[in-house]
Amino acid sequence: MFAGISERTLYRGSPDVGFDPEMEQWKIWCSVLIVVLSGTVCQGDTTNRCVLSRAKNCSECMRVAKECAYCADKGVHYSRCDLYSNLLSNCKKIIQMNSAMQITKNVEINTKEKRNQISPQEVTMTLRPGEEKSVNFKIFQPLEAPVDLYILMDFSNSMKDDLDNLKKLGLKLADVVRNMSNNYTIGFGKFVDKVTVPQTDMRPERLKQPWQNSDPPFSFKNVIRLTKNASHFIQELKKERISGNVDAPEGGFDAILQVAVCKDRIGWRDQSTHLLVFSTESAFHYEADGSNVLSGILTRNDEHCHLDATGTYINHTSQDYPSIPTLIRLLGEHSVIPIFAVTNHSYSYYEKLSKYFPVSAIGRLQEDSSNIIELLRTAFENIRSKMEIKPERVHKTMRSSVSSLSAAVSQSDSSIFTVPPGNVEEFKLHVKALDYIGETHVCDYKEGQKGDLTIKPSTFTNALSVKAELLCTECSCELGAELNSPTCNGHGKFACGHCMCNNPWRGEFCDCDSSTKRDVAMCKNPSDPSKVCSGRGDCYCGVCHCHPSQRHLERFEGKYCEYSSLLCPRFAGFICNGHGKCSKEKCECAEGWKGDSCECPISNATCIDANGGLCNGKGSCVCGRCQCDPTDVSSDATCVPLKYTLGLCENLRTCVQCQAWNTGEMKGKNCKKCTNVFEFVDELKPEKEVTERCEFRDEEDDCTFYYTVEMLPNSNSTYTQVLKKKDCPPGGFLWLIPLIIFLMLLLGLLLLLCWKYCACFRACCARLPCCAMLPCCAAGTKVGFKEDRYMLRQSNLAYLDTPMIRTNKPVGTDVVRWKVTDNVHREAAKRYQVTNPNDTIPYNLSLRAARIFNDELRKPDSPEFNQLRLKVEENLNDVYKSVPGFQPVRKTKFRPQKSAGGRQDLAIIDTQLPAFRSAEKQIMNITEEKVNMEAFNNLQVCPGYYTVASDRGAHGQVEFQDGVEMVNVRVPLFVKDEDDDEKHLQVEAVDVPKGIAEIDQRFVHITIIKEALAKSIVTFLQPSYTCQRQDKLAVIPLFREIIEDGRTQVSYRTKDFTAKGGKDYIKAESDIIFLPGDTRKEISVPLLEQTEIDTLLGNGQLKQFCVELYKPQNGAKLGKLRETNIVIADENVTQTSVPLDQSTISINSPPTGVKAQPIDSKRIRMTWTPPPGQPTGYKVTYWIEGDENSSRVIKTTVPTAELPDLYPYCDYEMNVFAYNALGAGPCSEVVGCRTLEDLPNEPGRLAFNVISPTVTQLSWAEPSETNGEITEYEVTYAVVTDENKPIGPKKVVKINKPKKRMVMIENLKEEQPYRYTVRARNGAGWGPVREATMNLSTQPKRPMSIPIIPDVPIIDAEAHDEYENFLMYSSDVMRSPRPSTSDDTDMQMNGKWEMNSLFPGSANSTLNQSTITTYSGQYSRMMSGSSMPMDTQTTMMSGLETSMYEKMGGNYTITQQMIGGRRRTESEDVNAALENLEMVLHENRSPGIPDTPTRLVFSALGATSLKVSWQKPQCDREILGYQVAYQPLLGGEAKTIHISDPNENSVIINDLLPNQSYMFKVKAMSERGWGPEREGVITIESKVDPLSPLSPVPGSPFTLSTPSAPGPLVFTAINSELLKLSWEKPRKPNGDIMGYLVTCEPLDGQDEIKTYQVEGDDAEMTLMVPHLSENIPYKFKVQARTTQGFGPEREGIITIESQDGGRRQHTNFSEYNKQMVMRHEGYTIPGNMNTQTSLLDTAIDPMFSEGMMVMTQRMEAGTSITQQITRTMTTGSTITKQMERKFYEA
């Protein structure tokens, strides 16, 4: 017997069988209960991995899962590999493997030692696949540990003042380190950048001294090795001088890596804390900057130490910068903690960088580093107690994690723990062995099954070592196998209770030779001869050997395996009623049971009645049930007659009253409804002879009557006998009735008096038990507000927390509803303005989440905040989406709430829900319902708390938990600018929906008073003014005295006296707004002409009206003269009379004729026609089109408004409504307007791609703010001196294609710096310039394989003036190889040549060449065995020289183009040739084949039903139909659906199996054939019957569980044979990601397809793909895998391009003999030259005699597909062309 393996033998006997009817009945019910409970428990476990594995031997079984055991009995016909619990009942010899763990080294922690310690130190463990073990360990960090502090400083010239300050602070710096620890060392290093261009000025004089009084440039130097001598540190530091470089980013990463890995040179000590202070004010270079910017430094950093004897880094020009992941890994391996001390200029870069390090600190350095001392002190305090504790070097066959067991607090989703110095903290290490790595079992993993993982805290140098090994040994019964056993007929070995046959022997005893061909007819069922062994087994020697079933408890049996053990008859859902075995689909019942499904007990115990008889003698016992006499309709299960005693008397009471004495509820006509048989008798029958005897009191005479009820035989009718004589009370006691009534009234009065004065004596009752016994003094629970009144001054305060208290008995839970009413000081009708119910308003919601609040939820940029915010918004949007006018919730925040009882530690959710005003009640109902349910979908909330607040009122609930006496109610204050000077709010405790408390103090009154200090005083200057009627306008001046300047507002209105509004003047009511600095305004009131009656009658009455000021706002105060009288001067005036009022009319229509016009780039003027109804003002709302959250509102009193502070060239929408004293009218229609353009910003950073010392590509980014549509760019360049002063003419180039943000400039002067500028232009004009200076000679010469981007403007720096402003795009250049001349014979081969030209250099030089060349030829080519004639015709009209070539059977026309009187440059020819190549290769593809269908979408319609949808693919021809194929991933029948309708892009499939993963494939067809397939994998999860796993439970929920596709694929070529593939985790994993399947397919068809299994579920995954070939396109597919199967694929195509230009041997011409090209081109070239070319050709390769290469790269990400096509042509030199295209999906 081997260690780790145990065998168990179980012996079972048969119990004695006896019969007891009661016991038997009890056993039956117990059996039923046990079976039901077993089904409930087992319902979730629908798969048995042990059985499904079909393990052939014991060792295979042990590898399946840790729960699996193996049965070694002989003659077993069920699955030997099964769960241990399942084998216990049948197997006697059970084999199981057990794991082990042992601590081999454990030195206890000694807290007296001043060093970091961990215990235990060494552990060994063995694990079975899939098993997990854990071990506890402790760590200790002393209060004062050794500290090594190394300062690494940027020595570029900009840090000069920082170095000076550091020298002054040297002594203080040493003191700071000494305060950290007495056992310390301190060191110093400096860095600049790589000493090469362009980082460093390589001129000799600058290499000696880049700046005045500076040292030569360098990459990194270790100046002061870590030392304990502070004096030495200070002296050496004072000797240092600054150095310098050119560009802004520095080479600090090189320095950090050397400091980390050069342990001995730097002086890092063991058992000490390693701190690295990195000080700079610039950004950083990182990996690939050496190859992209410098002189081709392509070698990756080797991560080794390269310091010479002087401490100088010597490999800076031969190795690239390290990457960020490399630094993180190396600093962690060497226990170095970085502290970034950076200035404000670069703080944002390093703040993001510091977050990648497990433990780090960052501080904001002053510009001169004067605060570095305080910065170091703060940083050390922040990091000294933090450490990263995680497993390292974990073997691929295992997973490991660390959790805390003591006071150490782990940050969320992190391995960072807080370990206070001086404390011993305890942790737990978890190690889990995997089952599979991809598709490979861990026991078969080629890299072994052993691993040594370590647990090393980030600040420690010692660690916990764990040696873990998988238990993959063979079972003991297999080690002692009997070879060539007689039991196996000498054809196999006998082990573990069964034969393991040698090939080709088969059968249970290896008695069948499978190599001998035998007739399988004996294995075919005569009733179904189509399948051998019914498709459920294998035929060996004419005998069927049935396969094990994948379903638990199912086995196949029978001669032809035709029977299933799950198809026996069922009773109550159980096979054979759970009392028998299924054999050949028939039940073999257990003892005591019978029937087809064993549903009938042989015993008649269930038929015994209460008297011990069988079925009460009135029936027979059949199948355990009594079959009673059918004439007895009222009997129970044992044929005992039923007695209707319950309610029988009450049911007949009213009928007896009305039939006997015509009283009661049924008297009168209703009595006819009574159908019972009725009879008066003098004496009732005895109670034993009747069914029921009844008595009741008649309410009308207070007498008692009696009757009996008998059930008539064989029916449900009754027979009633009523006693004639009632039992009435004697009349002598009637006088007691008034006395009793009087006493009851007296008692009620006393109780009322007691209750009234109970409050006065409540305190006494609390002390006196005797008083407390009185009902009136019983102390009930009261809730109410603590305060009844608040007085507040108006400010920015948005809410008030007012306490609500609970008195007397604070026990149990009480929930109190409350509400807030705004403006209660106004009349109810005027409390709010009239508004539109469809206006969108924000509703503020508050809920209490069922989670603890922490500091991370205060930070809007923290991951925890964003994770919870997204969850809240997603669930609330789903709940409230049915609300009218619903918009997604926004402005979600989290806060704690004090005085919230036992739940004050929970987080309060505050968010805002925009919706219609009319939706308020629905929102309240939904909120209260969901709060009572304690969940908004998946968002868990606490009951009893919510707040819903609109702009007018609020409603909510608060909860008192058991023992809580006070909670706060957060009351919104609705503070608005238009509020009155004094406004009132009322808070009311409405009711107690849950609990027994009563409301005591119900109301709280809140008064809000505007600030008393006035900013200005507004008044009239005179009490009256006189105006002339003929002026038609009364102008009244209004003055403001400014106390504190600002914006103020006051309202005015007119009042009638003798002058009447509408008759003598037009009534006015509006607002006057004083802007800052305004002191005078005028009120204008239009005057009307005299009426004819007044003129004829000579009415001389004095006409006057009043103008009144009211409602001052925004700090305004009314002066002494708040009113003034206006006298209308007419002839024959008299004295005034009494004024009359005129009613105001409400506004019921919107403003009309709304127009909007832009004023400039930041303002819009809006005008409209006022509506009827005497509006007093208008409100204009405007917002950015499509973003109503950005809306703003302005007010005006006139029908025009100016919208200020707008964005340039931006579309705005706006509307307006009018209002008056009766409220607001409806809004106008929404109108739109776009602001005018403004000057654009400067273009983005300039980038140079240096082709040679005289040729460069210049590119730039679009301006950050275009402020309009960019119409063109202007590029200038000029030669400058070293001081950046121009010394030559400036060349200007205009680019009128704004999308072409790149130019190629040729023929620049060598070794001369140029200053380049770029600026953009839109409709408003030219914007500012972006400039850069570059000397191409200092740049590395690029190989010619650097891509030349197509459609790039080409500029000749030395061209004449006529060409300076002309740009030639490669798409405009005629496609041709290099130009070549021809003789006249070729020219006149089949046409004529005419040329009229003056000398090109003369003053009247012209170029007017006309060429008409027509060439026709016929030649044929064999295509698939047939001959196809080809015609070629070429017609040219331009200034061209032509030459005809015939080569290898093909004729070609080669052209040279003349532009503006000059020949084309080499770059133009190169681009033309490349364009020609691309056109040929593009048209060479077979047209008409559909692309892959896009966006494969699955929708679950049920547990077995699925809808599959896709989008129509791209195709040059018409789509004729689709094909959908699907098949289970575990194997099974593949089914295909053909769809002939091309408009059908979905199909519904109804025959799927639950919890099974299916692979779906969809492809499209055209007349040219089938296109490629789109694949997807999906699983529908649902609950199933535990005894029938393929049958879903009706009504159970179902979900799609397959993950979505991984994120975008990112390719990084490490070298010519190695590729790094990266991708992101699926956005919807839908479960635990088990790993990924990566497929690599070479598209040339030469190599085989490779697959890779990638384990892990990190947010970002990577895979290194080796052994690739250059210039071969590869297609990669990545799928995520869960327990249910694989998800959809993410595809990408990549080609690793050769660095030598892709030279290859010329492809044989015969390779192209099956391809045909047809091309038609048209070009328009400047210079009055037109070209038209038509070519029909079949030979494409002779055009490029030296070789040709085609490569394609395609990446797909979401809805964007990027396709990069690379064409390489070799014609004496190598040129590579790359082109990017984007296709967008609808």
Structure notes:
The chain is mainly beta. Helices cover 13% and strands 39% of the residues. The protein is built from 25 helices and 116 strands. Strands 47, 49, 50, 51, 52, 53, 54, 55, 57 and 59 form a 10-stranded mixed sheet that branches. β24 and β25 (498-501) form a beta hairpin. The longest helix has 22 residues, at 21-42. The protein is globular, with a radius of gyration of 48 Å.
Distance between the termini: 68 Å
Report the sheet with the most strands, covering strand number, pairing sense and barrel closure: 10 strands, mixed
Structural class: mainly beta
Number of strands: 116
Unreliable segments of 5+ consecutive residues: 1-46, 759-778, 1132-1144, 1342-1351, 1359-1485, 1700-1786
Question: What is the typical, i.e. mean, pLDDT?
Answer: 75
Shape: globular
What's the helix count?
25
Q: Helix fraction?
A: 10-25%
Question: What is the gyration radius calculated from CA atoms?
Answer: 48 Å
Strand content: 35-45%
In short:
The protein is mainly beta and 1786 residues long.
Summarize the helices and strands and which ones pair or pack:
Layout: E1 5-9, H1 21-42, H2 49-52, H3 58-64, E2 68-71, E3 81-83, H4 84-87, E4 93-97, E5 100-105, E6 117-119, E7 122-127, E8 132-140, E9 147-154, H5 160-168, H6 170-180, E10 184-191, H7 204-208, E11 220-227, H8 230-238, H9 252-261, H10 263-266, E12 273-280, H11 289-292, H12 324-333, E13 336-343, H13 347-354, E14 361-365, H14 372-383, E15 386-388, E16 391-392, E17 398-404, E18 416-418, E19 424-433, E20 436-437, E21 440-441, E22 450-455, E23 464-470, H15 476-479, E24 492-495, E25 498-501, E26 505-506, E27 512-513, E28 524-525, E29 528-532, E30 537-540, E31 543-546, E32 556-557, E33 563-564, E34 570-571, E35 574-575, E36 580-583, E37 586-589, E38 593-594, E39 600-601, E40 619-622, E41 625-628, H16 648-661, E42 677-681, E43 692-698, E44 703-711, E45 718-723, H17 736-756, H18 758-767, H19 769-772, E46 782-785, E47 789-793, E48 799-807, E49 814-822, E50 840-852, H20 863-880, E51 890-895, E52 906-916, H21 920-933, E53 935-936, E54 939-949, E55 953-960, E56 966-972, E57 982-994, E58 998-999, E59 1003-1009, ...
Parallel strand pairs: 7-23, 9-10, 9-12, 12-13, 13-14, 42-45, 46-58, 47-59, 60-67, 61-68, 81-85
Antiparallel strand pairs: 1-4, 2-3, 2-4, 5-7, 6-8, 8-19, 10-11, 15-18, 16-22, 17-19, 20-21, 22-23, 24-25, 26-27, 28-29, 30-31, 32-33, 34-35, 36-37, 38-39, 40-41, 43-44, 44-45, 46-48, 48-56, 49-55, 49-57, 50-52, 50-54, 51-52, 53-54, 54-55, 57-59, 60-62, 62-65, 63-64, 63-66, 66-68, 69-70, 70-73, ...
Helix pairs in contact: 6-14, 9-12
